[in-house]
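Database export, one record per block. Field names are fixed; values are copied verbatim from the stored entry.
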Amino acid sequence: MVSMVRAFIAIPCPEELKKNMLEIQRAINKLGKMKLVEPENIHLTLKFLGYVEDNKLNKLIDALNFISENRKFEISLRGIGAFPGPGYVRVIWVGVDKGSDKIMIIQRGIDEKLSSHGFEKDKRFHPHFTLARVRSVDKQQIRRFLREKETLEFGSFEVTEINLMESKLSPGGPIYSIIHTFELS
């Protein structure tokens, strides 16, 4: 029987920035019913791969080795937003200001390399760190909150690595572990 791994590619978030996000999570949690992302699980997903056969992971890693050719770069986290939008909120996120262009280039490269391995290209990619998945929320309160926080600064950090991650689903939420790290030059 073929073993499967639920995988994604992500930029990790440093601990000090997670602390800033935790304060916002506490505030948004009062606005409705939602599932907050555990602080240890906050990251920027470049591509969700879904279930991948174990024996294909090495081929994917080979295809993704180009990531290490990228130089380290600075990103700044700024603003809070929602998907699909403020009128209908399903996901609340922290945005990327400085460095989002570099993230887009790397993400398009990932899409390009993995399309030959049967992965569909992302039609709409927006660099963000997910804070919460919303079940129900007071629309007026959330709109006001998003407006007030649309320019909130969270800080910045240097992206030094990008990880191929495994996500094991459990009743307490997903458990993430690193499959492979691509160190940036």
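Remark 1: The first strand starts at residue 4 and ends at 12.
Remark 2: The chain has one domain: 4-183.
End of record.
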